[in-house]
Recover the amino acids of this structure.
């Protein structure tokens, strides 16, 4: 009981004695044998149950404390909560899809309605959030499966160096602002990395619908998004360092250890990716030639094992799942694996985003709607300006640079994953957490509308001579890009 007090901080213990059945039939400690005794799982030695109450009035029932027999137990509360979350997420996704909005926002709003800050259909979120964490793992696993180094090489300089420069600029800007406002530097650096992420799913979908994936601004945008997606895995590895409460020296030592462990982990993963993984997947394909069930299970197991190993090495579940996807992406089975994992990813991703939505307090957002709208406008303006300047520095025309800047002006869906991880590390808490959550959701909602305004803004820019027409800017751009490449080499 002393050990239990240290964990639960028990302030009350209630013992309920069970009334023994057929006491009147017992004589001298014996009673007649009954056939029901053969099937009864009730422990005759356990005549009491214990209820513990902690200082926050949480009640813990010590069930089957001395049971001799394995008993199948079902958590009906968890089943009920999962049903509510999945149904509400489906309804929210359908509604927003019909309205031409991202289904991600539907999941978030559905979660906010059923959570403690809304209608309170779900009040205890621990179990739901635990299950929903698989959504993060499978999201990053699928992201790793889609990773393609050849795609990144198409617009290599601006995608890699420009993308890195954007992240560094946002980190520095937010870090300086945080220090000037009296906040923690680490919190400001995280907010900068958080804001630098853009939505791969929404932007790529828009470019595909407009048949702009092969255009110059489309290639630059996709290359930058791919780099950002790769940077997500590294940012997960850096979050524990930012979340530490130690000094600068200890932080540098921790960073050094982290880089060493990360290098070892990536080296092992690289060796396995060409020695073990292709043979393993080929074997699974041969075994599961009749059905994909075994291959699907093996792919999920490989992802979870990699995530578990990464976590045990002091990195993160998210980084491990991303690396698992990258390892498979180097083989010929990447697309097949993605096809098998995608339904699982979609289900758990909906659970995860709905779980994030349950943390949104509608009353808080409504009370701070002015700050929220101002934050979204500020994010759009600043991101457009920073991306435009970076792209222009790499030799692209003002027109293309501005186009890329507008396309990347929102906050991406993987920012929710970063925010969730940062919250677990107590890096971002309280009102800042809710504000970032609301700003991200609102920026995703406004993104489709902003994309529809791009042609009008472009035409207006040509009329006002902010930038030249598309034909003249293309010729000018080719020359400037060649000069930029020559400077780099």
């Amino acid at each position: 009981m002393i050990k239990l007090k240290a964990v639960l901080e028990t302030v009350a213990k209630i013992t309920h004695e069970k009334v023994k059945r057929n006491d009147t039939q017992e004589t001298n400690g014996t009673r007649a044998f009954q056939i029901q005794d053969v099937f009864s799982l009730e422990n005759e030695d356990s005549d009491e149950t214990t209820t513990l109450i902690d200082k926050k009035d949480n009640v813990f029932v010590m069930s089957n404390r001395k049971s001799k027999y394995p008993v199948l137990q079902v958590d009906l509360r968890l089943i009920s909560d999962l049903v509510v979350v999945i149904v509400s997420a489906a309804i929210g996704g359908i509604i927003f899809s019909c309205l031409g909005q991202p289904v991600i926002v539907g999941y978030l709003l559905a979660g906010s309605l059923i959570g403690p800050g809304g209608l309170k259909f779900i009040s205890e979120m621990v179990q739901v959030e635990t299950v929903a964490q698989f959504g993060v793992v499978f999201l990053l696993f699928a992201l790793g499966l889609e990773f393609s180094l050849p795609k990144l090489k198409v617009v290599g300089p601006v995608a890699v160096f420009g993308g890195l420069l954007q992240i560094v600029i946002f980190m520095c800007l937010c870090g300086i602002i945080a220090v000037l406002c009296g906040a923690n530097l680490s919190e400001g650096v995280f907010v900068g990395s958080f804001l630098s992420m853009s939505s791969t799913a929404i932007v790529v979908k828009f470019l595909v619908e407009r048949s702009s994936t092969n255009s110059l601004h489309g290639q630059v945008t996709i290359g930058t998004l791919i780099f950002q997606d790769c940077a997500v895995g590294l940012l997960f590895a850096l979050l524990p360092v930012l979340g530490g409460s130690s000094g600068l020296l200890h932080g540098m030592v921790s960073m050094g250890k982290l880089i060493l462990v990360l290098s070892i982990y990536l080296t092992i993963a690289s060796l396995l990716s060409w020695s073990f993984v292709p043979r393993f997947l080929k074997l699974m394909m041969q075994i599961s030639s009749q059905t994909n069930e075994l291959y699907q299970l093996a792919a999920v197991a490989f992802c979870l094992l990699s995530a578990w190993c990464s976590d045990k090495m002091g990195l993160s579940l998210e980084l491990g799942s991303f690396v698992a996807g990258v390892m498979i992406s180097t083989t010929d089975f990447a697309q097949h694996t993605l096809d098998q994992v995608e339904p699982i990813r979609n289900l758990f991703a909906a659970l995860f985003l709905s779980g994030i939505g349950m943390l949104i307090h509608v009353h808080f957002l409504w009370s701070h709607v002015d700050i929220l709208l101002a934050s979204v406008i500020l994010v759009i303006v600043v991101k457009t300006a920073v991306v435009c300047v970076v792209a222009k520095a790499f030799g692209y025309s003002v027109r293309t640079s501005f186009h890329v800047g507008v396309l990347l002006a929102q906050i991406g869906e993987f920012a929710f994953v970063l925010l969730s991880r940062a919250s677990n590390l107590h890096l971002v808490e309280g009102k800042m957490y809710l504000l970032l959550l609301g700003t991200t959701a609102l920026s995703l909602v406004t993104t489709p509308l902003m994309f529809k305004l791009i042609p009008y803004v472009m035409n207006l820019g040509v009329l006002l001579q902010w930038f030249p027409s598309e034909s003249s800017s293309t010729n000018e751009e080719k020359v400037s890009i060649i000069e930029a490449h020559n400077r780099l080499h």
Remarks:
- Residues 2-73 form one domain.
- The chain has a mean pLDDT of 76.
